[in-house]
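During the second year of the project, the team shifted from modelling isolated chains to modelling whole assemblies. The rationale, set out in the original proposal, was that interfaces cannot be judged from single-chain predictions alone. As a representative example for this report, we include one of the complexes processed in the last quarter. Its constituent sequences, exactly as entered into the pipeline, are reproduced here:
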Amino acid sequence: MDFSLSIEQQLIKQNIIQFAQNELNQNIIERDKISEFPRELWKKCGSQKLQGLAVSEKFGGAGLNAQSTIIALEALGYGCKDGGLNFSICAHLLACIIPIWKYGSEEQKQRYLPDLCNGTKIAVNAMTETESGSDVFNIKTSAKKYKDGYLINGVKAFSSNGPVADNILVYAITDESKGFHGGITAFLLNKNTAGFKVGQQYEKMGLRTCTISELIFENVFIPESDILGGIGAGAPIFNYSMEWERIGIAACHVGTMDRILEETIDYAQKRNIGQQAIGKNQAVAHRIASMKTQLEASRLLTYKAAWNIDSKINNAIDASITKLFVSEVVTSVAYESMQIYGGNGYMTAFEIERTLRDAIGSTIYSGTTDIQKNIIARWLGL
Ligand SMILES: Cc1cc2nc3c(=O)[nH]c(=O)nc-3n(C[C@H](O)[C@H](O)[C@H](O)COP(=O)(O)OP(=O)(O)OC[C@H]3O[C@@H](n4cnc5c(N)ncnc54)[C@H](O)[C@@H]3O)c2cc1C
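Output from the structure prediction step:
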């Protein structure tokens, strides 16, 4: 077992941290306040191939394996303080690009991937509906055969990148009698397709620079050439994308926790109360020791799950364990850090309250904490 990073991985990490620190951290407080998606920064990220980390170079990506992709996302989470932008990139890469790259035809990959990898275009993954979030088996959006394609009808909820997306990956029922496994199909379309529109945009607690909305489909015609992975292949495509998403976003959180920890230690060493640094109080030092332990455990889980992908080992249980643990821990690390900052931590200017608001969403998206426990229990035969 070797836990060290290769020279190439160290360089990837250093370069992304440097890029993110230099280019992505201006005006975050302001754009968080007004929930503004930073399109110019998105393009800059595209110039670094951040949106196409795992995709082969032939289709415009960076050609990294899963372990190096995860190290790159960790570096992004460390260097970039804009949790919304990090989340936008992850949702786009892990739940949209990776499914196209893995399940798309050669022609679909040529048509969609280069612009999605280089920051020209933005993608959204649309599965959730108002009556089916945790219960994804219960979606109502339908796709009925029509001429040489399908007509899609339905409304999707909570679609990250929805208001700004150019390409949509939408899941719809093609055969109700088969249920989720075999009855659901993934379709690709672009935002100008007749009958498609963006619905209400949601205001939300955190991740505010990643805009999120409903997506409305009214008799949207999709030709057979834009079916992803074949009729009825929606379930394995969705599950595969969720495994990547659960691990990839966790990697970003590992980077974020690493940064918060460093900043919190620095604060605890410099803030003097009662003639000594607050870090000299065991209560404060113990909080920080727990944060460090949680960070290191998160990193190991994330690296192992990425290694599973590269080793082609069934990853469902490890992806859920990683997601469950890291999403709870990043929330707790941000909360503990806020406590150590005291009143300053509650104030916007210190940026820790935003990190906490951003972190909380992670216990809900990509399947809630309860749902991860259900998945883990199922794999244990319960
Ligand atoms: C910031 C954010 C971004 C998102 N981005 C996207 C996106 O890009 N695309 C997309 O398709 N979706 C997206 N979602 C939707 C997300 O996947 C769902 O919100 C999530 O799966 C939970 O579904 P729900 O909101 O309907 O909650 P519900 O399913 O109503 O759950 C409510 C509560 O009941 C619990 N619960 C429900 N069923 C069970 C059960 N069987 N066992 C135990 N507990 C249960 C849940 O754990 C939760 O605590 C996003 C959500 C958020 C918050």
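The mean pLDDT is 97. The first strand starts at residue 123 and ends at 126.
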